[in-house]
Amino acid sequence: MCILDRDNMLLQNLEQESINEPGTSRGSQPQSTSSNLPVSYFTTSSNCNEPTGSTMATTESEPPLKRQKQLVLSNRFGAPSELQIKAFYEAIVRMIAEDLQPLSIVENEGFRNMVKLLDSRYQIPSRRALGRTIIPNIYSNVRNKVQTLLNDTSFIALTTDIWTSINTDSFITITAHFFPKGHSQLKTVVLCTKKLHHGHTGVYLAEIMTSELNSWGILDKITAIVTDSGANIKSAIRLMNIQHIPCTAHKLNLVVQQALYLSEDDSVGEESHELHDSGKIKLILKKCRVIVGFFKRSEVGNRILGEKQTQLGFTQLLKLKQDVRTRWNSTLIMLERLVKLKEPLTVTMISVKEAPSNLTPEEWVIIEDIVPLLRPFNSLTIELSAEQYPTISKVVPLLRGLQTSLNAKTPKTSLGSFIKSNLMLQVNRRFEGIEKQSLTPYFSRATLLDPRCKKAAFAVEENASDAEKNIILEIARSLTNNTLDAEREVPTEQIEEDSENLWNFLQNRVNNVQGQTTSTSSAISLMRQYLNMPYQNLNCNVAEWWLSHKSVLHPLSEIALKYTMIPATSVPSERIFSKTGQIMSARRNILLPDNLDTLIFLHKNM
């Protein structure tokens, strides 16, 4: 029996490959045929006559091939350059930021072994070096890039939200939204995620936000701030003298909550035989939650439910979904899943003795009435929560579409009709002034300046006309300012005027009146020119359309982009906190707030 020294043979093959590389003096020598053999070829053979004892002992006592291969790799490729090391460090930071990993991952044995296997020439930085040197340097570079983008834009919109962690620490995050100079792609960046050290009063929040915006040098560029309807945050924005935009998604969620009576207190007297409609809704939803909760806890019930789905020919096994009051559209998701699993669920609940009471046939019909009534709200929330394209100009037309959709629904039950009426009443009440210029004028202005909508999206023509008048005034102011700027730039000779010329006053007044008249007439003409242009299809990129018409419709194009970039919801900042929650979980609670701010910043902006 003969043992082939696999390690030495592989090492020879690596050396042979190095020799055979182009440009070497021995490149013409024939390559060993053993280099193409799989590992399984290097095994014990019974056909060799050489003694094996000493060979086997030597083979078992030798160190593994890894170190020898590493030496060969180092000889072949040399040590990594500074540029390669920098790219390696950036890749580690990017992985930590994008996957929201703790800094201690660089000390994990599995991670270190994997990197050594891939390329042992690279030295993994320590957690200390990562946190004190590497990440701060990368953060500085990324911040400079973000600062350059912010400096090159004229208008910026913000979203902000406050979140409390599992450790009862409060944080505020601010996201910025704008069109980079010459680009039609909406850009979103995170400015900060800061820990709050005092009570959440309007004055304190205004100080925090003002300080942050001043550190970026963009306070005078802020067009609007989108938040929920919290009194403290609204007060802070009012103190900053910036336009507040209420989050449309929050208002839609409140519509559904109030229409379905999703209050904190869902207790219902089941023994009562004369429940009002509101009580019936609460009772049905409570039974749904009890059923879902049972299958979430019961291993037997959950297993049998899966078996029944298989028997009934379900191609994909589905699980029940529990609703959460603070999670938008979760009630719809729970009811939809119950309806999908109605048949296997009913059979399972008959088979399991501990199962709660099932829904009655009438209650199943009511649920089937509720689901199509709630679906438009879910679709609208998803549509308006995007970050890559403009959304505020969609609010008015999509709300009209929502009302039309609800009107077209025909529930089968009286309770379904009651819920439909409730939903329509809440929509009308919460969005009654969405087209008017008195409370939230930016919605209607953005809609009017959307070439897909213009005046056709408005329910009341007078509201469209009011928005048009305000935009014309804004155009006129812009034209006047441009004229004044041009006059300041043109050098003029000093003209000696008679100080006793009493006609100077009248001449100055005439010049001012003529200038104002010219600006207003030009603004009216420009607005009419835009409104007379053809409507664009629904797939039109609004920002791209305005950029392509910049030379023709200036300065209306800049005004349009100023309104168009404003988000319809505060979802961008809330998405940041969903990531923050992952970082602040029990496995990552060793992170300091400074590291948290940095990682969230890099996660979004790298």
Provide the succession of SSEs: HHHHHHEEEHEHEHHHHHHHHHHHHHHHH
Helix content: 55-70%
Shape: globular
- In spatial order, strands of the major sheet run 3-2-1-4-5
- Rg over CA atoms, rounded to whole Å, is 34 Å
- Average per-residue pLDDT, rounded, comes to 84
Distance between the termini: 59 Å
Which stretches are low in confidence, meaning pLDDT under 50 for 5 or more residues running?
1-7, 17-62, 269-274, 492-496, 586-591
Number of helices: 24
Structural class by secondary-structure content:
alpha/beta
What portion of the residues fall into strands of 2 or more residues?
Answer: 5-15%
Total beta strand runs: 5
Largest sheet: 5 strands, mixed
Could you characterize what this model shows?
Helix 4 packs across helix 24 (593-605), helix 7 crosses helix 8 and helix 9 (248-259) packs antiparallel against helix 16 (414-430). This protein has helices at 6-19, 53-61, 65-77, 82-99, 109-118, 127-151, 202-216, 231-239, 248-259, 277-297, 299-311, 330-340, 342-351, 361-384, 395-408, 414-430, 441-448, 461-489, 504-532, 542-548, 550-553, 556-564, 571-583, 593-605, and strands at 156-164, 170-178, 187-196, 222-227, 243-246. Strand 2 and strand 3 form a beta hairpin. The two termini are 59 Å apart. The chain has a 5-stranded mixed beta sheet, with helices on both faces. The protein contains 24 helices and 5 strands. The longest helix has 29 residues, at 461-489. With 606 residues, the chain is α/β, with parallel strands linked by helices.
